[in-house]
Amino acid sequence: MDFSIKAFDTKNTLGAAKSGCIAVAVFENKKLSEAAKALDLNGAISAAVKSGDISGKPGSTLLLRGVAGMAASRVLLVGVGADEAISEKSFGSAVTAMLKAFTSLGAQDAIIAFPFENVKGRDLNWAVRSIVVAANESEFRSDAQKSKKDPAITGVRKLALAVPAATPQLKAVLAQSIAIANGMNLTKELGNLSPNVCTPTYLANTARKLAEDYGFDVEVLDRKQLEALKMGSFLSVTRGSDEPPKFIVLKHMGGKPKDAPTVLVGKGITFDTGGISLKPGPGMDEMKYDMCGAGSVLGTFRAIGEMNIKLNVIGIVAACENMPSGRATKPGDIVTAMNGTTIEILNTDAEGRLVLADALTYAERFKPAAVVDIATLTGACIVALGHHNSGLFTRHDDIHNALADELMDAGAQTGDTAWRLPIGENYNEQLKSNFADLANIGSPGGASCTAAAFLENFTRNYTWAHLDIAGTAWKSGAAKGATGRPVPLLTTFLLNRV
Ligand code: BES
Ligand code: MN
Ligand code: ZN
Predict the structure, then answer these.
(1) What is the pTM of this model?
(2) Of 105, 150, 188, 297, which cross-links 266 as Cys (Cβ 3.0–4.6 Å)?
(3) What are 167-202's pLDDT values in tens digits?
(4) Rounded distance, CA 296 to CA 188, Å?
(5) Distance 378 CA to ligand 1 centre (A)
């Protein structure tokens, strides 16, 4: 999809705009939006609305052709609901319906002339971002591994958003939105790829390609180097696998050389069988998505590379498989993490925290301004928050946590929301082991919180936040597929830090 913003004075210039289609909003109370009024020179639009051919309910649409007095060949009426202060949900339904209607048009290009500034509690920037992301989503196909590709996308390929003034600021927002959408596509592609293709090596090659395309520094550490670093916790997870582990470091030094970097750390389990603590069979295929934290780091790097943002950002991806085998780690095994902490592995399926522990210790060397780890860490996070919000954890002694606020704000700005959950001394006590410094699972209750509390032990030398994306990174069922979350949240968080 090709996006642009164009300045239109709805009263005077919209009617003269040459386009395959202009989409305008109409209301349930039969009122016309300003843009609809501007195109209603011979009363065709008001007549269609009065006739009841379109209800005006969010998501209702009606296509009119050859409306007199209008240069565009079609006008698409789109219902946005009863209220002239449009709710976010109604706006979303309207955009989805509009995009759907666009796919079956003979037209190649369209102008969207919606009352963007009337969305309750939102602004023009938000509307631009949400349309770009939705339009990108509507044309995403997960056919990378199908021998017969899904049918080619027909209909509108060029979208112009009609705005009062195409300011440099709004143009920047458009460019950011496109970068976010492209970043999400990479995250989705990686997530959806089968686990025999999307291996740790594949993730490393993807990082190398990104480095080449956008001028990042990249370093990929292999098993020998990880052994030399004494990453006993990470290495315990990869023991049962024949696929070589990869520890990937990407650097975008867009800020001043001396500025402390913001570090993103992604869980990159390219397949999680559970190891010797084997997972049940049904739905196990979905554990190919256990690298979505890593995928979101790579997707975010694509976005920041495309924008060349003026900030120092380091991405770390700890990638390996979690497999059972004769060499695999056993429940009861005790390993020593890179920072010297000994860990009793009571459940080999709690592997994400083991790979992250060493990645988080490794992050110390960058003297970071902040570290955010992103992980499909616990099924319990889905129980707690469903699929709407990622779980957000920060240090417990800080209810008013600035980093948490930044991440919450970035989520709210983009609709890629997170919600805070607690850690603290009580959860740490649940992680006591009789034989080692820490156990890798907590006593029953609060499994997302004990997992986050485990990670906290490895982050005490810097400002840190953890995002549990088990519920938000992919969808199950008929629409199975990666969502590209939390790339919008992460990219916006970084943009806000510039
Ligand atoms: N990758 C899983 C978490 C997960 C499960 C994400 C289901 C999405 C859907 C993680 O490695 C895991 O297995 N966690 C265990 C932890 C338990 C053993 C304490 C879990 O959540 O069951
Ligand atoms: Mn697991
Ligand atoms: Zn896992």
Answers:
(1) 0.97
(2) 297
(3) 999 999 999 999 999 999 999 999 999 999 999 999
(4) 9
(5) 4
Domain that holds residue 61: 2-164
* 440 alpha carbon, closest ligand: 1
Is-contact 232 323, C-beta < 8 A? no
Q: Which has the minimum average pLDDT: 117-121, 177-181, 395-399?
A: 395-399
Tell me which residue has its CA closest to atom 9 in ligand 1: 379
**φ, ψ dihedrals at 170, nearest 5°:** -70, -35
Going by pLDDT thresholds of 50, 70 and 90, the confidence category of residue 427 is very high
451 & 403 share domain: yes
Residues 50 and 90 in one domain: yes
Atom of ligand 1 nearest to the CA of 347: 18
- Cα 414 to ligand 3 centre (Å): 27
CB 35 within 8 A of CB 9: no
Pair (255, 328) in one structural domain? yes
Q: In this structure, are 190 and 157 located in the same domain?
A: no
Residue 154 pLDDT more than 90?
no
Q: Are 139 and 204 members of one domain?
A: no
Residue 356 Cβ < 6 Å to ligand 1 = no
Q: Is 141 a residue of the active site?
A: no
Please confirm, yes or no, whether 327 is among the known catalytic residues: no
Ligand 1 atom closest to Cα of 451?
A: 19
Cα 263 to ligand 3 centre (Å)? 21
Nearest CA, atom 13, ligand 1 = 349
> One-letter amino acid identity for 359?
A
Over residues 162-167, the mean pLDDT reads 93
Domain tally, the chain: 2
pLDDT tens for 258-310 read 999 999 999 999 999 999 999 999 999 999 999 999 999 999 999 999 999 99
In ligand 1, the atom with minimum distance to the C-alpha of 378 is 21
Ligand 1 within 6 A of 272 CB? yes
Q: What is the DSSP string of 229-284?
A: TT-HHHHHHHTT-SSPPEEEEEEEE-S-TTSPPEEEEEEEEEEE--TTSPPPSTTG
In a domain, 170, yes or no: no
Q: Which atom of ligand 1 is nearest to the CA of 381?
A: 21
Please tell me the residue having the least CA distance from ligand 1 atom 3.
378
pLDDT in tens, 412-424: 999 999 999 999 9
Radius of gyration of the chain (CA): 25
